[in-house]
Specification:
The protein is mainly α and about 260 residues long. Helices cover about 75% and strands about 0% of the residues.
């Protein structure tokens, strides 16, 4: 959430006048704070969203010179390389991931951090195949994991986890095909509208659409390794943000349309 707010802050510079240096400075500082919070979080899922946000910002910045874009891309690549090489947190998390995958692949220890995730993904897929229409039910998911453990599909430790560590698989296993359609609609319906406005000629509309698209794609990517909507704080954050960005775009279009009308 801190990273997304930093991204929103920086993209919203399009709402400000270019001579308002103080506001622009603090908005860029907010992005730096969000990036630092993401680094300290040690969440690999959060780190995966950063390149996606950078690409979205690049697509929205079509009014910026190519030389400036190239400079920003170069700086971003150097920054990521420096953090990866000198940042102990990143190196440790990458080494842990490599070790977990290696142990899981040979069956030496499947109850590592990544190993448990892989088991839960496999178990959730099994539950969906066995209950494809309605799933096992919201309240029956813990018991369903216990049954998978008794069938030696997942380990007893994995069966103690409250969710699948994957938003889509979690919905599929609990609510079946209806859950899959619901989560995909929650992701991709607003993402479609925002991506469509990303080509608009007006910079305010374009950057606001970029904020909305960053929100949707960020949740999709993070949802591949975690269950984001399990936390009650997330629902209002996601829904209110989408409503705000869409409202801003609609009102901005009305203002532009009125300005284009000939004077009476």
């Amino acid at each position: 959430m801190a990273l997304l707010l930093g991204v929103f802050s920086t993209l919203s510079i399009a709402w400000n006048k270019s001579d308002n240096k103080a506001v622009i400075f603090f908005k860029i500082a907010a992005l730096c704070a969000g990036l630092y919070a993401a680094y300290l979080s040690q969440s690999r899922g959060v780190w995966l969203t950063i390149p996606v946000f950078a690409v979205i910002a690049g697509l929205a910045a079509k009014n910026i010179r190519s030389s400036y874009k190239l400079s920003a891309i170069t700086f971003f690549v150097i920054l990521l390389g420096a953090v990866s090489y000198f940042g102990n947190i990143v190196k440790e998390r990458v080494l842990v991931a490599e070790s977990d995958i290696s142990q899981y692949s040979v069956g030496a220890n499947v109850d590592t951090s990544l190993g448990i995730r892989l088991q839960l993904w496999r178990g959730s897929w099994v539950l969906f195949k066995e209950h494809p229409i309605f799933g096992v039910g919201v309240e029956n998911f813990p018991k369903a994991l216990e049954d998978l453990s008794k069938r030696n599909i997942i380990t007893p430790l994995s069966a103690t986890f409250p969710h699948s560590h994957n938003e889509i698989l979690f919905m599929m296993s609990r609510l079946g095909l209806f859950g899959l359609l619901a989560i995909l609609a929650l992701y991709f319906v607003p993402a479609y509208y925002f991506s469509r406005e990303l080509r608009d000629n007006d910079s305010e509309i374009r950057y606001t659409a970029a904020m909305g698209l960053a929100l949707c794609l960020g949740f999709i990517i993070l949802g591949l390794v975690d269950v984001v909507f399990l936390w009650w704080e997330i629902y209002p954050y996601y829904v209110v943000s989408i409503a705000f960005f869409l409202t801003y775009i609609i009102k901005r279009k009305k203002i532009l349309h009125q300005e284009e009308l000939p004077s009476p």
